[in-house]
Structures are given as structure tokens and as C-alpha cells.
Amino acid sequence: MEYPQKDSLKILIIASEVAPFAKVGGLADVVASLPPAFKDLGCDVAVYLPAYRQILDYLDNNYEVILRDLPVQIGSKLLNTDILKAELAPGIPLFLARQNFLFDRPEIYQGKYGEYTDNLERYIFFSRSLPLFCSAAHIAPDIILANDWHTGLVMPLLNQGAMPRSAGVFTIHNMGYLGLVPPNRIDSIGLPEEYYRTDGLEFYGQMSLLKAGIIYSQAVVTVSPTYAEEIQTPTFGAGLDGLMRWVKESLYGVLNGVDYQDWNPATDPHLTANYSPGNLYGKRLCKKDILIKMGISKEFHDKPLIGMVTRLVEQKGCHLVAEAADALFDLGLSLVVLGSGDKDYERLFSNLKKKYPKRFGLKLGYDSILARQIIAGSDMFLIPSLYEPCGLTQMYSLKYGTIPIVRATGGLSDTIIDPHEDLPATGFKFHQASVPELMKAVTRALQTFKKKTDWPIMQETGMKCDFSWEYSAKKYLTIFEKAISIRRGMSK
Ligand code: ADP
């Protein structure tokens, strides 16, 4: 047994991303900062990930090989994996499945030509390796916490009798990614026939690994209370809304938290200047810095600056921004965007840059330092998502005194208070995903920006908001208790 303490709750988190080593979106932040919160509450926690090239580079040989050549069945093939052990944070083991053919690649999910075509097989392999690794290493966690479609298959594997002591909890970070396995690749899943039914993995003629996680876990968590409600409706349920209504007694909405040791403008080493509530002089320097960095012409330096840091995908409402661009720039503001993702959106934004070279700053790509500098240096932060399970950037923006303008959906609804809803407000919301609604919210923000007392009050209110992990981690623990009692009842 690898865990240090004897009687505390033993949690193993399995996921496809972790910050800072292997980050694509918010999942990575969560997987990095939730374990220390569990540890602070007295739990023994460990994390299991694929040994991506990025992680091994980062670790620079600071790991030990604890198991060699574990054979994992994937379809008709056997592929071996080594298990490495490193440290995610002091006292938090990071176990890694090393399978170089599958995970020694330049990026996490996609290459030059789009998504890796064997992503299904990569994560089926990874999920199938978990019970084998636990059994070979004599690890028997009380809780296996799996995340999103990549690790959904773990739940039916537990259901099949692997690790009878371990209760399965499945967190949905994004319902939009179903992990669909087409009929000609079903063999690679390797479950008995009875799992391929409508009340199993079947999804309109295909199999869904997300559905596998939902159906066979003892509890399902999603990352905000509003999203937990939304996914029970056809608009947000991605075809699984009926299932979500069916499992609603064991469905919980727990807001993600923020690691304020990492995200704090008073200590952030990547900012030109640090600042804190009551003294925002440093924020002005950050604004100047980002305006210059993003190539905004000097004549616009005194104007309001809106920032965006986002994956460029449909979910994030990128088309709304592109459609609203003329009207936005008519308001006299400037806009800076850092993003990467779909090539169509990258093109759309590149064209916008050509049209508004002086007041539109664009950086295509992934840059975690620039992300912080934009969040710090902007006056407002725009998140026009069509849906947003939780969203982290609005919470980071609040802490950095940057006023969020958000579409009222999912976690954006739960974390931002609009002046129309209550006071003290922390940001601006719009409801319909339309250009006129977006423009109304931006216009309201600009009107408040001009008010030299209201704006700093709003900034300070946001900076003092507390979305730290402790509260959410405690909620997870009560869910874990319920899941354990269900599991232990099942295995009697
Ligand atoms: P999602 O997980 O849907 O992408 P979140 O708001 O939950 O959205 O989390 C996004 C995380 O990824 C944030 O930490 C954000 O700063 C970061 N991020 C997104 N795009 C980029 C990018 N192009 N460069 C750097 N960081 C990014």
C-alpha cells in the first residue's frame, strides 16, 4: 500500500490532464488543486495519469519505476505499460502509465492534422490499466474519482468486480464530449456483451464512454449546481438528458475552486507589477504591459480593454464575438484574445486582426504566462459561452480585479453577481446567446467603467470573493461517504 496514513479516506484520482505538466483546459487545474485540498482535510490522495512526454520532460527523471511491463488488453492486442511514481505535491503521489507508443507525443490530444485518430484506444488502454496497476501495486482506494469520457470506462470495470472495496465517483467536467466509440471499434472496449445495451454504454448505435462513467458509478458529480440542473434538459444534455434525470438522486453539482496560492495578483511572479485590493496601481502597469505586448496602438491605451483567454471552440461563443466585433469596436474599446483550437475560429479571428490591426490583439496558441498577463491587464474579461460547466477564468478574473462579462449559464451563473440581480455586484451577465444581448451587457459594463467610484467597488468586491477549494472538497467528501455506503452495500 503506497499511502502514508492508515485510517484516513484513500482517494485515487484518474484523469487525462494535470496542470502544469499536461494542461489543455480547466480539468488540468482541477486535477492539480483538488488533491491538496483533500490532503488538507486529512485524506490520503494520489493521482493517476498517462505518462505523456510533457510530464516526463517536466519530471526530468524525478520518478521511480514501480512496475514494469503490465500487460493491458486492448481489443485483440496486448500492450504493456510501466507504472512510474513521482510526486504531484509534497505527500501526493503521482502515478503514471508509461506506454510510449500511445503517450510519447508532441501534444496531449491532437497533432498538426487535428485530433489523434487513436484517442479512443489511448484512453481505453489507460482506463483498463488502472485496476491492473492497483492490484499489482496492492493499492485499494476507498474512492476512485474518474473524470470525463477519457476515464469513464473505469466505472464499468469496477462494476465487473475489479477492486470490490473501491467506490466509483465520476465527475463530468464537460457533457459536450461523449467519448463515442463507433461500431467498428467497439471490440477495443473489451466489455462483456451485456454492457452494450441501451441501459449500458449504447448511444444511438455507438457506445459512449461518458455514459459508461455515468451509469456504472455510485455517484456523479458535475462542476456547478446550475450545470447539474442544465444537463437534465435537452438543450444542455447532449442527448443524455433523460439519463441525467434518471440518475438525478445521485447527481451532485459541486463548484470547482481556485488555488489562490497560484492565482493571486499580489504574488504572481509573471506580472509586470503585483497588486492587491486597496492598491490597484500595479494593475495599471499590467494593463500598459499587455497593451504593448499585444500590439494595441497607443491612441487606444486610455480606452477600456477587454480580454479573452479561451479554447477557440463553438462552446466558448467565439462566433458571437466575431459577429459582434464591428459593434464592439464602435464603442471605442480594444480587445485582446489568446486562444487556440478549431482552425475555422483561428481563421475568423485572424481576419478580424487584419480588419482592426490597431485595437485587436491576437495571439493564437497556448501560453500560460500570457494568459495570466491578459487576465491581470484587462479591465474586463469576456466569456460569452453557449454553455459553461463551471469555468475558471471568470473566477481568476475576479481575483485579478478584472470585471467578468459572461453569458448566464452553468458555473458562470453561479459565480458572478450582476447589478440587476443583487448588490454588491461582481460582473455583468447576458442571457440569450445573441449579439444584441452581448452588446447590452458590454454597454452596461462600459457605463459602470466610467463611474470612478462604482468601478473600483466592483473590482474590490470581486477580488475579495472566496472560491477556495476547501468548501468544495468538503462537499466531495460527503458524496464519497454516500458512494462508499452504496458500494459496500452492493458487494455484501
Ligand atoms: P475549459 O476547461 O472549458 O477550457 P475553463 O475556464 O474551465 O475552460 O478553464 C480554462 C483554463 O485553460 C484556464 O486556466 C485558462 O486560463 C486556460 N486556457 C485556455 N486557453 C488557453 C490558452 N490559449 N493559453 C493559455 N491558457 C489557456
Q: Which structural traits does this protein have?
A:
492 residues; alpha/beta; Rossmann fold; 2 domains; six-stranded parallel β-sheet; 17 helices; 21% strand; globular; binds adenosine-5'-diphosphate
Helical/strand content category: alpha/beta
Distance between the termini: 23 Å
**CATH fold name of the largest domain:** Rossmann fold
What share of the residues lie within helices?
Answer: 25-40%
What's the total count of β strands?
20
Bound molecules: adenosine-5'-diphosphate
Query: Which architecture name of the largest domain does CATH use?
Result: 3-Layer(aba) Sandwich
Q: What percentage of amino acids are in beta strands?
A: 15-25%
Total of domains: 2
CATH class of the largest domain: Alpha Beta
Runs in which pLDDT lies below 50 for 5 or more consecutive residues are: 1-5
Mean pLDDT reading: 96
How do the strands line up in the largest sheet?
A: 3-4-5-2-1-8-9-13-14
Could you walk me through the main structural features you see in this protein, from its secondary elements to its overall organization?
- The chain is of the alpha/beta class and 492 residues long.
- It folds into two domains: 10-257 and 470-491, 3-Layer(aba) Sandwich (Rossmann fold); 281-466, Glycogen Phosphorylase B (Rossmann fold).
- The protein has 17 helices and 20 strands.
- The strands form four sheets. Strands 3-4-5-2-1-8-9-13-14 form a nine-stranded mixed β-sheet, with helices on both faces.
- Strand 1 (10-14), helix 1 (26-40) and strand 2 form a beta-alpha-beta unit.
- Helix 9 crosses helix 12, helix 10 (318-330) runs parallel beside helix 11 and helix 10 crosses helix 15.
- The longest helix is centred in the C-terminal third of the chain and has 22 residues, at 469-490.
- The radius of gyration is 23 Å and the shape is globular.
- Residues 1-5 have low confidence and may be disordered.
